[in-house]
Design a protein that fits this description.
This protein is mostly helical and 330 residues long. The chain has 14 helices and four strands. The strands form two sheets. Strands 1-4 form a two-stranded antiparallel ribbon. A two-stranded antiparallel sheet has the order 2-3. β2 and β3 form a beta hairpin.
C-alpha cells in the first residue's frame, strides 16, 4: 500500500514537471508570467510550511519572518557590502537556519495555541527589527535589491525568472516527496498522530521537530531571497503578520499533509485576488466567502478531500497512517 502511494506521488511530480514545461505556451504577456512566478515562489514556501504543520502537526504563525530574513539578507549584503547574490542567498539561508535552530527547542516544547502565539511573536519581532533598522533595511520605505547574477550571467526577463522558479519548485517538491517516503517522514507523521506514542516506539520527537522546523525556515529564506532579486525592491510587509496568515491559509486550503495540495493552495490564493479585483471593494468579502465554503465542504483541504472522494468511488484504499513500529534512526 505504501508503495502504491509512493508511486502516485512521484507520478504527480512528473505531471507537475509537464505542466511547468508547457505552461509558458499559455503565458502570453509579462503579467501572466509574473503571476506564475509568484505562484511558484509561494508554493515553495508553503511546501516547507506544510512539512511542519501538515506532516508534523506543529503550528507556525510567523513563517513570513523567515521569508523576510532571506529577502533582507540578500538585499543588505548585495547593496551595502557588494556580496555576490548567490553568496548572499546562501548566507541568508545559513543565518536563518541557525536562528531557527536556536529557537526551535524552547519554542517547540509548547503545544496548541501557546505554540501558535510563540511563533506569532517571533514573526512580529523580526518584522519590528526590519522596520526599525532603517540604516540597513530602509525601514518602512523599503530597500532596492540588485539584479541576480551568477558568474557574470544576469537573470533578467520574465522567461528567465520563470525557468529559475520552476526548476526550484520542482527541486523542493522532489525533496519533500522523498523526505515523506523516508524513515524521517514516517517519524514526522508519527509525531503528528501522537507524540507520546511516537516516543514509545523509539522516535526522538524533539530532534525530528527541530529538524523539520529548521528545514522549513531555510526553504522560506531561500524563496525570500529569490523573490527579493526578482522584484528588485522589498518592504517590511514581506515579513508581516498578514503574509504569515496568507501562507498558513494556503496550507489549509490546499490540504494539510499534501505536497501537491500546497501547490494548489498557493496557486489558488495567488490568483484569486487578481480575479476578484473587479469587485471594487468587495473582493475581500468574496474571497472570505470562498475560503469559508472550502473549509465547510472540504475541511481537509482541496486536494485531500477530492482525492478521498475519488478513492471511495474507485474502491482504492486510503493513505496509510503513521506506523506503529519503531522508526529507523537517521
Amino acid at each position: 500500500m505504501t508503495t502504491f502511494f509512493s508511486r502516485s506521488r512521484h507520478a504527480g511530480l512528473l505531471v507537475l514537471a509537464l505542466i511547468l514545461a508547457i505552461l509558458p505556451l499559455f503565458l502570453t504577456n509579462a503579467f501572466y508570467y509574473d503571476v506564475a512566478i509568484r505562484i511558484a515562489l509561494n508554493a515553495i514556501v508553503v511546501i516547507g510550511l506544510n512539512l511542519l504543520m501538515g506532516y508534523t502537526g506543529q503550528i507556525s504563525l510567523g513563517h513570513a519572518g523567515f521569508y523576510g530574513l532571506g529577502a533582507y539578507a540578500s538585499a543588505v549584503l548585495t547593496t551595502h557590502y557588494g556580496w555576490p547574490p548567490l553568496a548572499a542567498l546562501g548566507a541568508g539561508a545559513v543565518a536563518t537556519g541557525l536562528l531557527a535552530l536556536l529557537l526551535a527547542r524552547p519554542v517547540l516544547k509548547l503545544k496548541g495555541h501557546t505554540l501558535a502565539m510563540a511563533t506569532l511573536g517571533l514573526g512580529i519581532i523580526i518584522s519590528i527589527v526590519i522596520n526599525n533598522e532603517t540604516q540597513w533595511t530602509g525601514g518602512p520605505d523599503g530597500i532596492g535589491v540588485s539584479a541576480f547574477s551568477v558568474a557574470g550571467l544576469e537573470i533578467a526577463g520574465e522567461k528567465s525568472w520563470y525557468l529559475v522558479c520552476a526548476v526550484l519548485l520542482l527541486l523542493v517538491t522532489w525533496l519533500a516527496l522523498n523526505l515523506i517516503d523516508s524513515p524521517v517522514g514516517r517519524a514526522l507523521q508519527a509525531i503528528h498522530g501522537s507524540e507520546v506514542a511516537a516516543r514509545v516506539v523509539g522516535v526522538d520527537t524533539t530532534r525530528f521537530k527541530v529538524r523539520v522546523f529548521v528545514l522549513s525556515a531555510v526553504i522560506a529564506s531561500i524563496a525570500g531571497s529569490i523573490s527579493a532579486h526578482y522584484i528588485g525592491f522589498i518592504t517590511p510587509n514581506l515579513a508581516g503578520f498578514f503574509h504569515s496568515i496568507e501562507l498558513v491559509t494556503m496550507v489549509v486550503v490546499g490540504g494539510m499533509a499534501s505536497i501537491f495540495g500546497s501547490i494548489i493552495g498557493a496557486a489558488l490564493l495567488t490568483i484569486l485576488p487578481q480575479l476578484l479585483s473587479s469587485f471594487e471593494g468587495w473582493e475581500t468579502v468574496v474571497f472570505g466567502v470562498i475560503l469559508m465554503a472550502t473549509m465547510i465542504f472540504m475541511p481537509k483541504g482541496l486536494v485531500p478531500s477530492l482525492a478521498s472522494r475519488s478513492r471511495k468511488r474507485a474502491g482504492t484504499p486510503t493513505a496509510p497512517k503513521a506506523p506503529a513500529k519503531p522508526v529507523q534512526e537517521v
